[in-house]
Amino acid sequence: MLLELARSRKILFFGGKGGVGKTTVSSATAFARANEGGRVLLVSTDPAHNLGHLFDREIGAKPVRIMPGLDALELDPDDTVETHMKEVSGALYQLMPVHLHKEIDKHIDLSRNAPGMQEAAILERMAEVIEQGLEEYDLIVFDTAPSGHTARLMALPEMMSAWTEGLIKRREKADRFAEFVRDLGRDSSMEDKTIGSADNEEQEKESQIRRILLRRRHKFTHLRDRLADEDMTSFVIVLAAERLPVLETIELSEQLIQAGVHLGCLVVNKRAPEDGGEFLRERHGLEEKHLQTLSDALPRIPRQDLYLLVQDIVGLEAVESLSGLL
Ligand SMILES: Nc1ncnc2c1ncn2[C@@H]1O[C@H](COP(=O)(O)OP(=O)(O)OP(=O)(O)O)[C@@H](O)[C@H]1O
Ligand SMILES: [Mg+2]
Fold it and tell me: What CATH number should be reported for the domain holding residue 169?
């Protein structure tokens, strides 16, 4: 099921609660697709450097080759925020008069740690990774940070583009006002060449600002379109067959629907085997009960179960053997 999704989509997101197996399952899916000849980029948006731990090697902001057909990268939130901040302050410097630049620096320093900043920055990098990645790869797999966060991330392009939209509108109003004031103050004797060239310079600056804002807006709306295109993008929720995870999955699925994102598969990981003795059989039965709640709530979403394995999943070989179970 998961593999079919990986074959039919170009972008897959894996989300879910902490520790359920997002990194493991997303990596195994990426591996399986690469193993059958696809070119796959595996991307972690989690600050905790999950992929590096799983593959037991250093993975950074630039793609590294894991095996033929499979590259991986980790978006570093701090680096991403720094780059993002530089761009934002650059744009703001252009928007505001010079005597306010100190204010901008202060504002930027404060917003560096503001809630949502890391997500916004990661989102912008994600947009870039997707645009570049779609040219070079058949599939981009995102291993995301634990859930609530993820759904917010999916709703963020909308918010960000609304924000930029507001800024553009305010800018346009300010432009019209400035023009009005200029017109008021202008008498025929002032219409000489110097004023004209200052006006041109001003206009040039204005249109530069508008270009920056429009480019940013375009980036976010484009990302939004990509995420909402269900032929291109799908979301996979990984969960455990327990009461709370099931309820949270139902909640997350509602958030995804609201954000307009296609939910392609539910992966129930670490299932208790039925034939593992009395204790595990009982556990299996209880899991079935919880999973009934899940399929009652989300009857049309395909489900794939993966059993709890004896060994830890670390290293390429372990990922390969799990990928064989997909
Ligand atoms: N089917 C499985 N059988 C046995 N162990 C598993 C299975 N799936 C995952 N694990 C183990 O569970 C642990 C957590 O898995 P993983 O790191 O993939 O979860 P995660 O959802 O990415 O966690 P986090 O939210 O912290 O990023 C790991 O030690 C992994 O080896
Ligand atoms: Mg992880």
Answer: 3.40.50.300
